[in-house]
């Protein structure tokens, strides 16, 4: 009896597998709730106003989507820590907010681009859906492309596994110098990484579709909504690490010049 009791004690101990799994589930739950709370303005807009053929409604809908960029950055950043450490990092709310603060300088122009794109798509979807039959399909395709680009820019700016340090540093410097330069640098780094790893954004979309389908399941679907965002972000980070995304740019790294090293050794000998 001592053998099974010891095994059971090890499983239910404070540092055992059951406790660690519970902490990981708690971390994913809190991060997902933080992400969903960021979309509270949009849910309030959908409940009270909705997308109507009026300028006020379209502008309110676009403004309500302004937290989408920071929320995506916080979600991916918080789950990147969990996947990288492979253990409970603690303080999930602080991890989420810290990821948003860390990406604010480099990603702020992209965060403002999200409501601007929503404004453009809102006018297309609301004002031209009856006159142009293909308007809803156009809005859906462009919305998916913007979502993929936003995730890609967030991953590249976050310096994920396999990131080119020079590219991230250049994007950081450009963002500090000016918003337009930061936008160009981040877009160039993201698109070049997409060209070298074209299956990665397709995997993101497949994971997103899978997460949405899981929330549609009967009985358990509403409960999975509180875990699906963190699960999707964690799966995205696993895919990025497995495929080495963002792909390093093919350039020669800067290194010391042989002559400089010889001069330094001669000075040291003197």
Automatic annotation (TrEMBL):
Residue ranges, compositional bias (Basic and acidic residues): 260-270
Ranges where the record places region Disordered: 249-270
Superkingdom of source: Bacteria
Keyword annotations from UniProtKB, A to Z: Membrane, Transmembrane, Transmembrane helix
Transmembrane segments: 20-44, 56-79, 110-128, 135-157, 199-219
Protein name, per record: Uncharacterized protein
Annotated source species: Antribacter soli
Lineage: Bacteria, Bacillati, Actinomycetota, Actinomycetes, Micrococcales
């Amino acid at each position: 009896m001592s053998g099974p009791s010891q095994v059971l004690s090890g499983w239910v101990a404070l540092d055992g597998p059951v406790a660690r799994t519970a902490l990981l589930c708690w971390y994913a739950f809190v991060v997902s709730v933080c992400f969903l709370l960021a979309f509270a303005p949009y849910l309030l807009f959908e409940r009270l106003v909705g997308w109507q053929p009026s300028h006020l409604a379209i502008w309110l809908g676009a403004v309500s989507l302004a937290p989408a960029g920071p929320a995506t950055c916080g979600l991916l950043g918080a789950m990147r820590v969990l996947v990288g450490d492979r253990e409970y990092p603690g303080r999930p709310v602080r991890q989420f907010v810290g990821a948003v603060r860390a990406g604010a300088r480099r990603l702020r122009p992209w965060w403002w681009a999200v409501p601007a794109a929503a404004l453009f798509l809102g006018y297309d979807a609301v004002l031209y859906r009856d006159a142009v039959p293909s308007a809803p399909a156009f809005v859906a395709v462009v919305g998916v492309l913007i979502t993929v680009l936003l995730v890609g820019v967030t991953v590249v700016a976050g310096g994920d596994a396999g990131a080119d340090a020079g590219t991230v540093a250049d994007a950081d410097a450009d963002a500090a110098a000016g918003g337009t330069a930061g936008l160009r640098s981040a877009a160039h780094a993201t698109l070049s990484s997409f060209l070298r790893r074209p299956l990665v954004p397709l995997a993101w979309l497949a994971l997103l579709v899978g997460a949405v389908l899981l929330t549609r399941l009967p009985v358990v679907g509403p409960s999975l909504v509180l875990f699906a965002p963190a699960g999707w972000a964690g799966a995205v980070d696993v895919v990025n690490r497995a495929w080495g995304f963002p792909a390093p740019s093919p350039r020669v790294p800067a290194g010391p010049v042989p002559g400089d090293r010889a001069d330094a050794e001669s000075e040291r000998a003197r």
